[in-house]
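Technical note accompanying the year-one report. For the benefit of new consortium partners, we illustrate the data format agreed upon in the data management plan: each record pairs a sequence with a structure-token string. No post-processing was applied to the example shown here.
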Amino acid sequence: MAQDPPTRFPVVGIVGGGQLARMCQPPAVALSVTLTVLAGSEDDSAALVIPDSLVGAHDDLEAVRRLAARSDVVTFDHEHVPADVLAALADDGIPLHPTPDALRYAQDKVAMRRRLSELGFPCPRWTAARTVDEVERFGTEVGWPIIAKTPRGGYDGKGVRRVAGPEDLGDWLAVVGEPGPLVDGVLLEESVAFSRELAALVARTPSGHAAAWPLVETVQEDGICTEVIAPAPDVDDDAGRAASDMAVRIAEELGVTGVLAVELFEVTDEQGRPTFLVNELAMRPHNSGHWTIDGAVTSQFEQHLRAVLDLPLGATDARSRWTVMANVLGGTRQTLYPELTSVLAADPAAHVHLYGKQVRPGRKIGHVTVSGDDLDDLRRRARRAADLLRGATDR
């Protein structure tokens, strides 16, 4: 017998007070969903715009329990909540999305590589190493250089090294087994000769319904995504569908609920055709999906809320032929408001999103989105606006 729907609007708790939680607030208001966040401080990005904010650490079980006590479901701004905290919440009967069983594959890159390989999803050749001999053996097998990663905690190029020999990992190997990101060893991967990086973004509900946005291209500089092009140029329809279908199957196999970003390498197969390898997973709204706020029928942030509440998912079609998003990275100026006037005046069609974060060089502090039919012009406009905001106007 079907249950009657709830008579009141729900409360979604978000662990973490960053910009991802912040950008869930506008669609929450539209849906009359209340958000409550556990922020690290009162001036965290989300705490500045979400009235019901608690201050506490994401690894403090009692602080997370206080958030859960006022929430109908709990979701996450990042993947760094410890496994023991997640397990305790699950034992308390708190609905968590994604679940701890799924989230471990975003928290632990070795676990992710192992599980995806078992399921037959295409990945770079990889191994986990604890000793110099194991590093030497893998490098000899796949060819130097290789890529080394900390299994836990890395992001935006942090925790990643290009390694020419075992001597380049001496400091990491010295702390293998100690508490921290290298407790279980170092993840080693072959250095993939990819043509570009792409991302497939999907959402899945606890009931098992899924939806995918168009495949996008992500442009990286020094390990940081600086630009996203939606849809990815020069990807035929069959290849784009195959990548999106693979992302949906990954979400189903891992039991992901909410938004899942599958970062991909585009490579060429033996017949000279483009194909894809899985690089990373993120089980939350993701930088590669920020373009959806202005460029898709349903943004990733609204979709994430729909998904974790098991509501029907929204349409994921693009609104324009092309949408380009440029990240605003922290530069030389501590305040962005004077430059905001110049950007808005120069390009009234540009959509500016600032995160209320303290400016630090290289930190993602906002993004700019433009849409239209001329891709080259859109890329120029988005980059120009982002550069103006950060105080770099030399290109």
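Partners are asked to follow this layout when depositing records. The CA atoms of residues 299 and 349 lie 18 Å apart.
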